[in-house]
Predict the 3D structure of the following.
Amino acid sequence: MASKFVSGLYPIYLTTQEVLDKTNAWLDGAGKDGQAGLRRLVIEAKDSLERSLKVQQKD
């Protein structure tokens, strides 16, 4: 269920610093005590976003 939620709602096509900042804010705030599986999925999506932002900076 969590994987469908994250994969369906996480804005993977919006590779902006704003999305990264909001993701970090959620992980440090409301999501801090969230289910481990949900946090893992969000962290994985965040890692992918960070890689995409680094590639964009190189272009």
Residues 2-58 form one domain. The chain has a mean pLDDT of 89. Residues 36-58 form the longest helix (23 residues).
